[in-house]
Specification:
Elements (H helix, E strand, L loop, with lengths): L1 H9 L9 H20 L19 H6 L4 H27 L4 H13 L3 H11 L1 H19 L5 H23 L3 H31 L6 H57 L2
Length: about 270
């Protein structure tokens, strides 16, 4: 119980947003408002008519002509941005106050000297997920060291198990909301393609009408196709970059945990013959 209280005491700071569904709904509402009142502002169009032609060179009106797929893709884009910012601060908190490389070095140096007090002090200073795992392992290190009823192999296994259990508690928090970003990498592109298909259907429908070609309907269909394609690709690309970036950060944290955990086990094995 004391051990859990100690770890929980260290786990302070921003740990992430658990209600990602609320984030998506908020982004959808914001996307609709932006689409209707900013992109669809009558001043962006000829004769102040959103159903008419955009003013020459007016990008906002051109985006508005992308149709109702635009706010859907824009919702995904805002969601990626929001969750990326959320993951940045959550992983920043998990890394702790100092550089992980320096923290790992300090822990290994303290262990090589057999100075558990210095190692614990480094954990208190660093904080974050890696420090929490190391702190749990050091507590177990001290406990098994005093427990003479266990064999050396059992003591080592107990420390290894503690590292694994502490890691299992910390890592899920790091990857929280990343599956949503991973889904948007594909969903954004697919929605862009859907908008492209709908836009091209409208363009060909305008060409298929008898008599003169409806230039407004034709241009609206082409705008819808191109705008949705651009938005979908941009959303998917941002989601891919975000997902890969944070995944690499989590891998780095996991590597540090494994390295320090291995050092603790090896130190115990070498100092207890």
């Amino acid at each position: 119980m004391e051990k859990n209280q100690k770890v929980e005491k260290k786990s302070k700071g921003f740990t992430g947003i658990k209600s990602s569904g609320l984030v998506i709904l908020a982004c959808l509402g914001l996307a609709i408002l932006i689409y209707k009142f900013i992109f669809g502002d009558p001043s962006n169009f000829m004769d102040n008519n959103p159903d008419g032609e955009p003013l020459p060179g007016n990008l906002l009106a051109t985006i508005y002509k992308g149709g109702m797929i635009v706010p859907m893709i824009q919702c995904l884009l805002l969601t990626v941005i929001s969750l990326s910012v959320e993951r940045f601060f959550a992983i920043k908190t998990a890394q702790g106050k100092g550089k992980l490389v320096n923290f790992v070095r300090d822990i290994k140096l303290a262990l090589s000297k057999g100075d558990l007090q210095a190692a614990n002090a480094a954990c208190d200073k660093q904080q974050g997920s890696v420090a929490n795992v190391v702190s749990s392992a050091l507590i177990k290190y001290s406990e098994v060291e005093e427990d003479k009823s266990l064999s050396k192999e059992q003591q080592i296994l107990a420390i290894q198990k503690e590292v694994e259990e502490a890691t299992a508690l910390e890592l899920p928090m790091l990857s929280q909301n990343l599956p949503i970003i991973a889904t948007i990498t594909t969903l954004g592109t697919l929605l862009g393609l859907l908008g492209t298909v709908i836009g091209m259907i409208r363009s060909f429908a305008a060409l298929a009408t008898g008599g003169a070609v409806d230039s407004i309907a034709l241009s609206a269909g082409i705008s819808e196709a191109l705008i949705n394609t651009a938005f979908g690709i941009a959303t998917g690309a941002l989601a891919v970059v975000s997902y890969n970036y944070f995944t690499s950060k989590i891998d780095s944290i996991t590597y540090c945990i494994d390295e320090v955990g291995f050092s603790i086990v090896q130190t115990f094995a070498a100092s207890h013959k």
